[in-house]
TrEMBL record:
The chain crosses the membrane at residues 20-41. It comes from Arcobacter roscoffensis. This is Uncharacterized protein. Keywords: Membrane, Transmembrane, Transmembrane helix.
Length: 267
């Protein structure tokens, strides 16, 4: 039957079948190799619920709910504006109500690193309609040091232990990590987020990435002698904490203290 078909359509039969079989074997072989590679790089036991996509409208609720009952919170990202405005007060309230210690670890951009601050300022945050606009290196430094001052304030609680680290690396993503979940977000309004529940492959992997990153960062001293900060002693306090602060002047101090007195949500 097959030879007659080749004769009818005026095809040369000799060599056609071997060529067809060779192509078929090659196709099957490549498929098996591709399947094996996918199996090799995919973690065993990975479930579809290990990764969840959160719409931009639900990110705030997810960031809040992940804090319920957690004893440790970690952040690896940029300025931690959301954390000082929302995460800090909620963890402090829980700690005071339950009389248990909450641990907070933050990794933010180093305000002393001009290149890192300048690069982060180019992300396009000026389009936000809430909180301070970030359009320059100076704006970024104000935000970062406002987070530092917020850490000093919440660290005064007997039920809160804060560790602050700074990095000269700028990532487009940021991690919020609790005992319940890890949420990966980007600094653009409207973008979705990724949600990784605890006890999953990606939760453990990104949590370990945070620990590795923390070991490569500079730790900021939050146990400074200056307790009541004013325009006159703020720069001294920054230097004692470990910042170079050679960009700080009286005008900068005034703006920084004003910003720290009025903590606003970024969205």
């Amino acid at each position: 039957m097959l030879p007659k078909a080749f004769v009818f359509f005026e095809y040369v039969y000799e060599g056609a079948v071997p060529s067809f079989m060779n192509n078929l074997i090659a196709l099957l072989g490549s498929s098996l190799i591709a399947s094996g590679f996918i199996w090799f790089i995919t973690p065993s036991g990975l479930d579809s619920n290990d990764v969840n996509v959160i719409s931009s409208h639900d990110i705030k609720d997810s960031l809040n709910s992940m804090l319920n009952g957690t004893e440790r919170f970690s952040y690896y990202g940029h300025t931690a504006r959301w954390n000082r405005a929302v995460t800090f007060p909620k963890l402090l309230e829980q700690a005071n109500d339950l009389r248990i210690t909450k641990h907070i670890d933050l990794i933010i951009i180093d305000p002393d690193d001009e290149n890192a601050c300048k690069f982060y300022a180019s992300f396009g945050h000026g389009e936000r309609n809430k909180g301070r606009k970030i359009q320059s290196t100076r704006d970024v430094r104000i935000e970062l040091l406002t987070t530092f001052l917020s850490c000093l304030k919440i660290n005064k609680s007997p039920f809160i232990e804060v560790s602050l680290y700074v990095t000269d690396k700028v990532s487009i993503s940021r991690f919020d990590i609790s005992d319940n979940a890890l949420i990966l977000t980007k600094p653009y309004q409207g973008d979705p987020a990724l949600y990784f529940p605890k006890n999953t492959f990606f939760y453990s992997s990104y949590k370990e990435e945070f620990n590795v990153a923390k070991q490569q960062c500079k730790k900021i001293n939050l146990d400074i002698s200056e307790k009541d900060l004013t325009i006159s002693n703020l720069k001294k306090a920054l230097c004692e904490a470990g910042f170079q602060a050679d960009y700080v002047d009286s005008k900068f101090n005034k703006e920084l203290l004003k910003t720290s007195d009025k903590i606003e949500k970024p969205y």
